[in-house]
Amino acid sequence: MSYVFIYDQTQGWLTASWWFGAALRSLRPGKDIILNIRSWDEMVEQLNALPKGSVERVEYWGHGLSSAVHCAGVPLPEDVLELVADRMTGPTALWWWRTCKTFWGEPGHDFAKKCAEALGCRVAGFTHWIWLWQSGLTATGPEETAPWPTTGGKRSWPWRENTVFCTSSGPF
Fold it and tell me: Which of 98, 121, 132, 170 has the fewest Cβ atoms nearer than 10 Å?
């Protein structure tokens, strides 16, 4: 099974930090794959080049806002996740949005639910602005109700709830 690290290659100095983070994480033993993408179409093409049912975990590093993630400034199209869902290992797999505020508020709850249903696995994301410290980490799965409050949207700090450091693999 593979861990896949995907990052948006179009964001200047942030791209360098996302690449560095992915490279550090890929030093762990296992089958890690790093995909640097310039569009959602590239992500679909590269993920679909992997064997079906082979991806245990995806981490997408890019920009996000409440209920949205972006690549090259373009919001995630609604059908993209369905196009790659068969690459995931199933309900125990994880897709982690390492993006700012993606699960914040009611729109974030709706986005998380749509992602989990489209992928058929657990999804994780943040309810706060993230940087080195990443606060408000939470997760949900298909047919689950989002277990986190709709509050959030603050800057991440080590003392905030559900905080991980940028190189952390999280509590998953």
Answer: 132
Task: Determine the structural domain holding residue 136 and report its residue range.
Answer: 2-165
- Report pLDDT for 17: 81
The whole-angstrom separation of Cα 19 and Cα 115 is 24
Cα–Cα distance measured from residue 21 to residue 32, given in angstroms and rounded to the nearest whole number = 13
pLDDT given for residue 49 in this prediction? 97
What's 88's domain CATH number? 3.40.50
Residue 110 lies in a domain: yes
Torsion of CA 149, 151, 153, 154, to 10 degrees: -100
Please indicate, yes or no, whether the overall pTM of this predicted structure exceeds 0.85. yes
**Which parts of 23-152 are beta strand (E)?**
32-37, 55-61, 63-65, 68-71, 74-75, 94-98, 122-125, 133-134, 138-140
**Structure tokens belonging to residue 144:** 């689950």
Tally of structural domains, the chain: 1
Average pLDDT, consecutive stretches of 10 residues, N- to C-terminus, the chain (172 residues): 90 82 73 91 98 96 92 95 97 95 93 97 94 90 90 81 83 74
